[in-house]
Write a structure and sequence with these properties.
355 residues; mainly beta; twelve-stranded antiparallel β-barrel; four-stranded antiparallel β-sheet
Length: 355
């Protein structure tokens, strides 16, 4: 497999996100006595046609251990009351300081069924930790509320299929169709333990709802880089919870908000073994609608959450140790209020031939 092919395979993994081994730089290193390469790099399109695709080759299994760390901090101050003068406020000040950390260890397997069809499965294990302090300041009295929560366990297992729609041709983009399903093997927000008031005593390790995500990936080779873009739609299936949350709240049907997902960027080869990736991704998440039932009055109400805009800059670095093993380090910087501050991901994919 040429470095160019390895780069394309890596980028298809990055469209979820940044892994890119090397590219045509290796072809630019010529042995002594051979004619030097032309000034403008040329893609080995013929070898790509023989190879058949940019996904995992037929009969090859890729195993990818992964570790991910996510940090999010929220600092918010609100005031409820009356402004008498510009310097005199009568009412209640509330200050929130929340720190959330998430650690995920996962194993992902990818199998090339054909040269253009790839199957994937991801099994995550999640540990979450959250500490918060809410300060309420009135004329009399002022008080603080401190809370620390954590939980760990199996996350939501995912399975996916990727199919390359067209063959590689010089000067033309490559299209890949993706279909992903996320299960509910983790503890959802209605599976965790709560007190009589409905306040959580631990954190969920999963979303609690099934999800299906079709998406389309486009790769455009332009030596010594590969441009990529991805457009997807996440459909979160609604569910009837029918569960009491505390002593006075009963939750009926919950319809999680669907999401439109967009990402784009560029993978660039520095040398035959090293490459980096620059990109951006944004998730537009719709409102979640929750039906509440009051057993004392027999009335039900439906409440909707706010929409979310989760945007992040993507930085990736990859080093190809050998033909079968690489190291990928990815970093996401949140650029919108709803995005986590940082997401750091380390992947070490290695491959083997099964048939």
């Amino acid at each position: 497999m040429t470095p160019y092919q390895r780069l394309l395979i890596g980028v298809t993994g990055f469209v979820s996100l940044a892994s890119a081994p090397a590219l045509l730089a290796q072809e630019s290193i010529q042995p002594v006595g051979q004619e030097p390469p032309p000034s403008e790099p040329e893609f080995n399109v013929q070898s790509m046609a023989e190879y058949g695709g940019v996904l995992t080759p037929r009969g090859r299994l890729m195993l990818e251990p992964e570790f991910q760390y996510t940090h999010e901090s929220i600092n918010r101050m609100t005031f409820e009351g009356v402004e008498v003068l510009s310097t005199l406020l009568i009412g209640v000040f509330t200050a929130q300081d929340i720190d959330r950390d998430s650690y995920m260890a996962a194993m992902t397997g990818r199998l090339g069924v054909t040269d253009r069809l790839e199957l994937e499965m991801k099994v995550p294990y999640v540990y979450r930790d959250e500490s918060s302090r809410v300060s309420v300041a009135e004329i009399e009295p002022a008080f603080d509320i401190d809370r620390a929560l954590s939980n760990h366990g199996l996350g939501d297992i995912e399975v996916a299929a990727h199919y390359q729609l067209n063959r590689a041709r010089e000067g033309r983009p490559i299209y890949i169709g993706n279909l992903r399903y996320k299960s509910t093997t983790g503890d959802g927000p209605f599976d965790i333990e709560r007190n009589s008031a409905g306040t959580p005593r631990e954190l969920p390790t999963g979303t609690g709802f099934h999800a299906i995500e079709p998406s389309l990936t486009m790769l455009f080779p332009s030596a010594p880089a590969v441009y990529f873009a991805n457009l997807g739609y996440t459909y979160n299936l609604s569910d009837t919870v029918d569960r009491a949350v505390g002593d006075e709240i009963f939750v009926g049907k919950v319809d999680p908000g669907d999401a439109v997902r967009v990402s784009f960027g560029m993978a660039y080869a520095i040398n035959p073994r090293t490459s980096f990736t620059l990109g951006y991704k944004n998730d537009f998440i719709g409102k979640t609608r929750t039906e509440y039932f009051d057993p004392t009055t027999g009335r039900s109400t439906t409440q909707s959450s706010s929409t979310l805009n989760v945007g992040a800059l993507l930085l990736g670095w990859s080093y190809q140790l050998n033909q079968d093993t690489a190291i990928n380090l990815n970093l996401e910087f949140g650029v919108t209020d709803d995005a986590p501050d940082t997401v750091l991901t380390l992947r070490i994919p290695f491959g083997m031939d099964l048939f």
